Hints:
The protein is of the alpha+beta class. The protein is built from two helices and six strands. It has helices spanning 27-38, 69-76, and strands at residues 4-8, 11-14, 18-22, 42-44, 53-57, 62-65. The chain starts with a strand and ends in a 10-residue tail after the last helix.
Amino acid sequence: MSKLIHIGYGNVVNVEKIISIVSPDAAPIKRLVQHAKENGLAIDATQGRKTKAVIVMENQQVVLSALLPETIMGRAQTEDGEIGET
Length: 86
C-alpha cells in the first residue's frame, strides 16, 4: 500500500514516487520549475501562497508546496528513520 504525505492545504503526494524535496531559491531549481510549467508537468499545490518547497517526482512531474522542505521530509520519514515503507 502506498504511503501518502500531506504537503499542505489538503494536498497529498505518494512518498514512494518522490525523488527529491528541494528549496526553490537556487537558479537551477527555478529553471526546472519553469521548464515543468512550460511542458505541463508542474502541479501547483501552494493554493496561491509562496512556494517554499519543490518536490521532484519519478514521472518528471514537479510539485510546488507552501510548506518548508524540512517539514515535508519530517512527514515522509517513518518511525525507523527510513523514507517510505520497507
